[in-house]
Amino acid sequence: MRNKLLLILLAVIVIVVSGLAIYQFKFKHSIEDDLNKLRSMKSYSTDVSYTFKNYRTEFKEEGKQYYNEKYGMKLNVGDKEQIYKEDKIFIRYPKDNKSYEVSPDYDNFYRYTFVNELNKFLVPGENTKYKYDTHEGKKCIVVEFENLNGNENMSKEILFVDASKLVPLEINIFNKKGDDKVTVYFKNFSTSGTVQKEIFD
């Protein structure tokens, strides 16, 4: 009788432990898991808006970002297109039929608003902090990091990621003095399908 009770108790323990393990595997995940999924995006497109702030006024730019890990990045903003391929940036003005090529040093701002460019900062480290929090009524992953691109107006960035959809919502950019200089908003962020090569030609 005692042996049967021990066997039953052992079976119950095994079932409970197995159930907890299955739950942990299927339903529970860490913030690191979520950030790894964000880093693993192969391509995406999104509408984007930039609000620039100074002491007297604000001005906005509207645009669209494209990214494909094979073909590069592209930003359409105003009447200008910027295409980032390897170590070159191609600037185009389609309406004026003008284009030229510049070095990567030309842009130390827009490229750091592409999510794939932020991947290097989405890892734990001395200059990176992250947590789950609520932002404008949504559960978000909040990532705060120092942007070490040499631009004093981008000394710190705070990235808000929708925790359920794992898409970026907003970036707040601060200068070396801690002043809020730029807010970047993402809308209609999509990773479904593939951003085609023709977009970058």
Automatic annotation (TrEMBL):
It comes from the Bacteria. InterPro entries: UCP033729. Keywords: Lipoprotein. This is Outer membrane lipoprotein-sorting protein.
